[in-house]
Amino acid sequence: MRRSAPIAAVLVIAVVAATSAGAGDAPNRVSATANETDETHMTLILSRPKIDPGDAKIEFRNDGEDDHDLKIKRVGSEGETSVGVLHHDEVDEVELRLKRGAKYRFWCSLQDGLHREYGMEATLRVRNHRS
Fold this sequence. Notes:
about 130 residues, Immunoglobulin-like, three-stranded antiparallel beta sheet, 1 helix, globular
């Protein structure tokens, strides 16, 4: 199989959980990176797999050459949240209330789910308590 030249693509998801902590406390952050090294290898990796429960702002940044979207679903729920298709260097965000002890799936749904099959999927776990 012929491999293409590496394509620099980075997908960043920053999660900032609002807490009742003092004004001087730094917010919780989670970032995810998607790398496209050839047509069949994509990844979505969270920098921190766990976060405190509460209100959160999820920032989705596409630093890659290809278009990507972001779907978010709490495991066990019916509903799904999404950020539309972003082109190179575009940023969008969505606000969620992260439920205590829940798991959230993040994935790219483009090309009829092919990006997800190639590895653009990650799970964020929410702690049972504030740390």
